[in-house]
Design brief:
Number of domains: 2
Number of strands: 12
Low-confidence stretches: none
Oligomer: single chain
Largest sheet: 4 strands, mixed
Strand content: 5-15%
CATH architecture of the largest domain: Alpha-Beta Complex
Number of helices: 10
Distance between the termini: 57 Å
Order of helices and strands: HHHHHEEEEHHEEEHHEHEEEE
Shape: globular
Structural class: alpha+beta
Radius of gyration: 22 Å
CATH class of the largest domain: Alpha Beta
CATH superfamily of the largest domain: paralog of FGE (formylglycine-generating enzyme)
């Protein structure tokens, strides 16, 4: 009887999480003025209207046949809204607004899918939730976790996309009061050699993970020195003022070609107005906040590190400083084992923008390194590749494997718009090295 009750409760919790995730993405679309749904804020990405239908199409295509046993009612929309864009060859989409359905039709499609999925999940027997279907390697519980986290990832990627939408095309949302942080003094922290465990074990049935998070593996990490704080706008301004963007010695040959071809001279979140630097927040343009983390591409982060005579950390170095301890055992979170809370960092949708890198002393790691979870992802020098023992998700074979191409780099940590469930130690994010728009900063290491 207890097992059955636990299954019912687990199903209820997953359905509630799905509903909450829908609320997060609905909030994003409600920010867009109705006459701007066909805008393309980032040239390499789809128009906003695509994402309005994509989130439901993904859930529908994932769940409909596999666990719900339902028939499609609009196969054209199922296909149209199925896949996004990862522009690795420099080609830009050429579609026009007229190529997309009306917003009314897209919303009607969304509404019908939600009703169908909710009814189907309600009718699913509790005993089927955590048991793999015959001939499959997945359960309804796994698929719901995929749907939830996929949607929450888009709640973040849509935020940085809408960050580039002109301010007058967005409907302002309330913001939290700005935190008052003590002035920081940039310095580096010595991290002794130690052993880390990357990834998740398949024997651990208590945690959900994406395919690239498996299989768990121990790695020995030599000692190194790392920045206590993320590199700030103020520090990066010194690089800009020193003509770092005009100095090919700071860049790899490939990154220099990219920078010169696109005539890039500063971070995409910055602008110059009457000889003063400004910063575009989600809803305003403000004087450049010098103590906020700088958001840049991996190529720009790497150029700064070269200029400073340092380098970007590897994935294992970042893991060591975030979760390691002097004694040896690893922590669940940089601050320990307690669950994430607003006092520990700028994450889980608490803010639309970054804040000072010194605002969360309670979130420091065992080595005294700050701001590791939240306030911006952190670039590493590690190319996104599979761990030993990697196995594709049979129901989503391209999720990770399509990006093991040598052009994407691992990011660790989280941003202000990263959901709490993705603050787990094993989670890996990745982007191309020339992508400027993501909420990602960095810190440097010396060996």
């Amino acid at each position: 009887m207890l097992v059955a009750q636990e299954a019912v409760e687990a199903r209820h919790q997953l359905c509630e999480r799905l509903s909450q995730a829908r609320g997060r993405t609905d909030e994003i679309f409600e920010m867009v003025r109705p006459d701007s749904l066909y805008e393309r804020p980032i040239a390499e990405r789809h128009r906003i209207i695509f994402y309005l239908g994509h989130l439901e199409a993904f859930d529908w295509n994932l769940l409909r046949e596999r666990i719900l046993g339902l028939k499609t009612f609009d196969s054209d929309f199922d296909k149209l809204f199925a896949f996004g864009i990862d522009p690795i060859n420099g080609a830009l989409p050429s579609d026009q607004p007229i190529d997309w359905p009306s917003a009314a039709d897209a919303r009607k499609y969304v509404k019908r899918i939600r009703e169908s999925i909710d009814a189907g999940l309600g009718a699913l027997a509790s005993s089927d939730w955590n048991v793999s279907s015959a001939g499959t390697d997945f359960s309804a519980e796994t698929l719901l976790n995929v749907a939830i986290e996929h949607r929450l990832m888009h709640a973040e990627t849509l935020a940085y996309m809408l960050h580039q939408l002109p301010l007058d095309r967005k409907i302002r949302r309330p913001s939290n009061p700005e935190l008052v942080a003590q002035p920081i003094v940039p310095r580096m922290i010595v991290v002794p050699a130690g052993r880390v465990t990357l990834g998740l074990s398949r024997d651990d049935k208590s945690a959900f993970g994406w395919d690239n998070e498996y299989e768990a593996q121990p790695v020995n990490v030599p000692g190194f020195i790392i920045d206590k704080y993320k590199v700030t706008n103020g520090q990066y301004l010194n690089f800009v003022a020193a003509a770092g963007y005009e100095n090919p010695a700071c860049w790899t040959e490939e990154d220099w070609r990219w920078r010169t071809a696109l005539d890039i001279h500063h971070p995409v979140f910055w602008s110059r107005n009457r000889h003063r630097w400004h910063y575009r927040t989600m809803f305003d343009e403000i004087p450049l906040p010098l103590d906020w983390p700088v958001y840049v591409s991996q190529a720009e982060a790497n150029a700064y590190a070269r200029w400073a005579g340092k380098s970007l950390p590897t994935e294992t170095q970042w893991h060591r400083v975030a979760y390691g301890t002097e004694e040896g055992p690893e922590r669940h979170f940089p601050w320990g084992t307690t669950e994430p809370s607003p006092s520990k960092g700028n994450f889980d949708f608490h803010s639309w923008d970054p804040t000072s890198v010194g605002a969360f002393p309670e979130g420091e790691s065992a080595f005294g390194v700050a701001d590791l979870l939240g306030n911006g992802w952190e670039w590493t020098s590690t190319r996104f590749e599979p761990f030993r023992g990697f196995q594709r998700f049979s129901f989503y074979p391209g999720y990770s494997a399509d990006f093991f191409d040598g052009k994407h780099y691992v990011m660790k940590g989280a941003s202000a718009r990263t959901a709490a469930c993705m603050l787990r130690r094993s989670f890996r994010n990745w982007f191309q090295s020339h992508y400027q728009y993501v909420y990602a900063g960095f810190r440097c290491v010396s060996n």
